[in-house]
Design goal:
21 strands, Dihydrolipoamide Transferase, 4-stranded antiparallel β-sheet, 22% strand, alpha+beta, Chloramphenicol Acetyltransferase
């Protein structure tokens, strides 16, 4: 019996996936475990493998299109099977996923945006229809498509908007639905009305001003703009959307307290220099990951999280490292960092950072953290207050190493030393202030004397 390959759930927050590429085509033979396509999630690009073997019968989601988790994206056929062997239920499912259409129309669908219908199905719309709907404030879910397989065309959007735009090209005139109906009722040509809305959109007051000017025999003057013109709209989706949601949740659901500590980073600088002289690529972050892992072993109260209304003390120290990428902020995790040497941590972070920035990091590498470090020192920031990475209870902010004149002995002698500001943000629901201060003090002492890490384990 034909086997359906569904859009997999590749992350806890994943709702839809976008096909980046297909490694197979209809008629190809597929073996169990073979990569068949690449799917872009809200975090990364992940290869999808076939669970069973067979022959590719039909690809239902073309490159560039999205499908909800659980939707069929491909059909595999067994030996001597054809698409005619599909059950009635399977045929119905495939009709809901992608309407039957000629090959050239299916290829064109790859360039068409796909939106989720209110009934859980999938609607498709051309880019022109999508753009026109946005300009006119038309909900595509309420528009009946007249294109192949029910795809929404620009004419369908114009019809839904009341037909007021048929007198002018949709790409040239932007007008709100209310203003369009008013202009049609008054018989005003849209080309002669100047818009005062975002990106020059014609608003109701613009139509009224044009009508008033005609009555007075004057040329219409656009009202003074009261709002700045929008240059670009960036949707809150994917990594950026998830980050926005989680940061807001963290700020509103935690009792955040920040402790600052300036430390002498001379020993830290010397230790990194010794690794460089040995030809090993070790960053300050790598050393700090090991320091924090050692400190968490001595202060387990900081290695905790709040879940389901209770505090969970965690075993082992898995340190997340905030990484800036083109797709947004990601936090890959160095698992069991308390059991690794600094050199091993350096190798792990290099792999994780490269994978995160290429967009091909696995979901496992982005989960399971117990503590997070975020370093803005490379951007010249000396101190800041980061946001806790839920469900963790602590995050350490690391600033720039700055050479400063400081008192260096009991005789008030002044010397210039490399100084570093650490900021520990913790959830006071999980950790008391004194316990957090003792943990930060432990980290500070290890930064100033890295040899103290040896008391926990070898580095």
């Amino acid at each position: 019996m034909p086997f359906e390959i569904a859009m997999p759930q590749l992350g806890l927050t994943m709702e839809t996936g976008k096909i980046v590429s297909w490694a197979v085509k209809p008629g190809d033979s597929v073996s169990p475990g073979q990569d068949i396509c690449e799917v872009e999630t809200d975090k990364a690009v992940v290869a999808v493998q076939a669970i069973e073997g067979g022959k590719v019968g039909k690809i239902l989601t073309p490159v560039g299109a999205e499908a909800p988790v659980g939707a069929t994206i491909c059909v595999l056929l067994g030996e001597n099977e054809t698409l005619a062997d599909l059950s009635v239920a399977q045929e119905k499912t495939l009709e809901n996923v992608l309407p039957s259409a000629p090959v050239e129309q299916q290829a064109a669908a790859a360039a068409s945006p796909v939106v989720q219908a209110g009934n859980g199905g999938v609607l498709s719309a051309t880019w022109k229809a999508r753009s026109l709907a946005k300009q006119q404030g038309v909900d595509l879910h309420q528009v009946e498509g007249s294109g192949p397989g029910g795809r929404i065309q620009a004419a369908d959007v114009e019809k839904a908007a009341g037909g007021a735009l048929l007198a002018a090209p949709a790409a040239e005139i932007k007008i709100s639905p209310v203003a369009a109906r008013l202009a049609e009722k008054l018989g005003l040509p849209l080309a002669g009305i100047m818009g005062s809305g975002a990106n020059g959109q014609i608003m109701q007051e613009d139509v009224l001003a044009a009508a008033s000017a005609i009555i007075r025999g004057q040329k219409a003057v656009a009202p003074q703009r009261s709002q700045p013109c929008v240059k670009e709209v960036i949707p809150l989706k994917g990594v950026r959307g998830i980050t926005s949601q989680r940061m807001a949740e963290s700020v509103h659901s935690t009792a955040r307290v920040t402790l600052f500590r300036e430390v002498d980073a001379g020993a830290l600088v010397d230790l990194r220099q010794r690794y460089k002289e040995r030809g090993e690529q070790v960053s300050y972050n790598d050393i700090l990951v090991r320091i924090c892992a050692s400190a968490l072993a001595e202060h387990p109260a900081a290695n905790a999280r709040m879940l389901n209304g209770q505090i969970e003390l965690l075993e082992g120290a898995s340190i997340g490292l905030a990484v800036d990428t083109d797709r947004g902020l990601m936090v890959p995790v160095v698992h069991n960092a308390d059991q690794l040497t600094i050199a091993q941590i350096a190798a792990a972070t290099q792999r994780l950072v490269q994978a995160a920035r290429s967009g091909r990091i696995s979901p496992d590498d982005l989960s399971g953290g117990t503590f997070t470090i975020t370093n803005l020192g490379g951007l010249g920031v000396e101190g800041f207050t980061p946001v806790i990475n839920l469900p963790e209870s602590c995050i350490l902010g690391v600033g720039k190493i700055v050479r400063k004149p400081v008192v260096i002995d009991e005789y008030d002698s002044i010397g210039v030393r490399p100084c570093l500001t650490l900021s520990l943000v913790f959830d006071h629901r999980v950790l008391d202030g004194a316990a957090a201060a003792r943990f930060l003090d432990c980290v500070a002492q290890m930064v100033e004397s890295p040899v103290l890490m040896l008391t926990a384990s070898h580095s």
